[in-house]
Amino acid sequence: MKRCLLLLTSFLTLTMMAFAAPGYQAERANEHGVEIVRLVDGQRGVEVSIAPSLGMRAYEMKVHGKNILYFPLPDPGALASSRGLNGIPFLAPWANRMAGSGFWANDKHYKFNPDLGVMRIDQNGISIHGLLTTSNLWKVEKVVADDSGAQMTAKLEFWKQPELMAEWPFAHEYELTYRVSNGELQVTTAIRNLSDEPMPVSIGFHPYFAIPDVPRNQWTAHIPARKSIETDAHLVATGELRDFDLPQQITLSDHTFDNGYTDLVRGPDGNAVFSVEGGGRKIEVVYGPKFQVGVVYAPPNAQFICFEPMAAITNGVNLAHEGKYPQLQSVAPGAEWRETFTVRPSGI
């Protein structure tokens, strides 16, 4: 009888374990020839996949099997040959457009070297989105999971790459951490300045979001801003601002966007919350205090919206030199700049 009870207890324990929701997991794998890292919150049905060798691009954030990141490619292997952006691209050392033949910093002008082939150039001949959107220079340092979450951290030693230093001659390195916890994705960036002069901070992210199974014409967006950023015909910021005059809830059935916003409305914690919702489903993007600018991109007939956390306005480095952008941040020699944005899905 005692043996039967032990067998029954063991069976019930194994059965309960089989049906219990798994906790946090972090694993390295290979998909279509690309090394990926997958972070899982099994209890809440969230799974984030990142391709470190392709710009540290997070290309999937599945919530109960539905990807809330716009990723039109068949698999991560296709990222290597695709110029288009999708998922969550990291934009550095500058985000969006940098007008002219170079940039100003510390009262010195540094010329770009487009012949090196490491810059992205838009249709107007303007450098855009920095140098690292598909970089294979990231080195994974940590992939871990415990009772509080699952995360990965990778580092890019910019200062070791002559072709990068030729475009942005500040010795520095990036550390990028993706963390899944409580059904949310936290993305934390650290910049360490290894040079002898202050380095301007103009990085950003270009996340593409989509509400699964809900047409875009049923989406509404919330933009927590007081000021819109004026741009010229090539979408380069002029340094002028105007009052934000859109309603609190903006329907995407009759609105498109390629606009920057600043003077963000923040809560007591210093964070600003952008959001899109539809069909009872919602995606919030929470900007930490050092992300001063939000670019919103939702072109006509596209089944996505981008809420882009930015440390500075477009062309902010040059505008600061002209005295038109006093809010430009910098990181002192030997110091570190660090900030986080969070993706928070609900109802999916």
Describe this structure in words.
This protein is globular. Helices cover 8% and strands 45% of the residues. The strands form seven sheets. A nine-stranded antiparallel β-sheet has the order 11-12-13-14-28-24-23-18-21, with no helix packed on it. Strands 17-26-25-22-19-20 form a six-stranded antiparallel β-sheet, with no helix packed on it. The chain has a five-stranded antiparallel β-sheet with strand order 1-2-3-4-5, with no helix packed on it. By secondary structure, it is mostly beta strands. The protein has a single domain, classed as Beta-galactosidase, Chain A, domain 5. The protein has three helices and 28 strands. It has helices spanning 2-19, 162-165, 316-321, and strands at residues 24-31, 34-41, 46-51, 57-63, 66-67, 90-91, 97-98, 102-105, 108-111, 127-128, 139-146, 149-156, 172-181, 184-193, 199-201, 204-205, 208-209, 220-222, 225-231, 237-243, 250-251, 257-264, 272-278, 281-287, 293-298, 305-310, 329-331, 336-346.
